[in-house]
Amino acid sequence: MMQSEFIRIMTAVMDVGEMMLTSGAEVNRVEDTLNRMLQAYGCVRVDVFTITSSIVVTARTADGESFTQTRRIQDYVTDMYKIERCNALSRKICKSALPAEELQKEVEGIRKEKSYPGWVRLLAYGGISAVFSVFFGGTFGDGAAALLCGLLLFGAIELCNKLKLQRIILTILCSAIVGLGAVLLTGIGLGNSVDKIIIGNIMLLIPGISLTTSVRDMISGDTISGLLGLCEAVIRALAIAVGFALVLWGFPG
Questions:
Q1: What pLDDT score was predicted for residue 253?
Q2: I want to staple 170 with a disulfide (CB 3.0 to 4.6 A). Which of 21, 72, 160, 238 is the partner?
Q3: By CB neighbour count within 10 A (0-12 exposed, 13-18 middle, 19+ buried), where does 3 fall?
């Protein structure tokens, strides 16, 4: 295999690892996937080091040449379907390695594939907020208010993402906006309990996947990645509390 072709293959494989990590895959899964894909292309040794913010891969080919690539991970958007697509591509390559050009097309297809349309996610935000609000003891009025706050939360998250705000700042602002919405809605008579309305929306902000993944990473032996993920999840949980607290302290009634 020519050196230029292998570099293209390795770049495409790194793209797969990046998409998996940014979509919520655990570190062990990312490392195993990259290892298997590169071995399918004839690498005699593959060393992968992955943490929540970086991927470093060194691959040695059969002719003794070594290649190293690094990716810096800066953003995360949970997308289990994209992870499943990357896993399917990995299994396909392990059965029969694709040419570099075809592999790049497959990877680009996964990257460009759209997730659920905006209106579906908007309804999901509202519906989930309403259901959890009633589930935790709220009235149907509280559920209706939580639904509206869920729609508001979706809009706030989309706006903050377009502004490319840092994740912690985004979490504080979105929590504060939702808290203010809950206070105002109860003030006009839609909903009776601010806390029951807020709790329905908190469920959309809690970093549950990050927390679960970090614990799984630590159990798998990836202690550094697990601790980093755990710290991030705890900080985001504190940011949620700060955002709601700012509003509730400003409107003690």
A1: 53
A2: 160
A3: exposed
The residues with which 51 forms a beta bridge, in sequence order, are 54
Q: By 3-state DSSP, what share of the chain in percent is helix, strand and coil, each rounded to 5?
A: 70, 10, 20
Question: Quick one: tokens of 120?
Answer: 């579906």
CB distance 127 to 32 below 8 Å: no
Domain residues of the chain, as ranges? 3-112, 118-250
Residue pair 21/83 in contact (Cβ under 8 Å)? The answer is no
Which pTM value belongs to this model? 0.82
Give pLDDT tens digits for 18-45.
999 999 888 889 999 999 999 999 999 9
Each residue's pLDDT tens digit, 80-93: 889 999 999 999 99
CA distance 64 to 62: 5
Q: Using CA atoms, how far apart are residues 29 and 21, in angstroms rounded to an integer? A: 9
Amino acid at 181: G
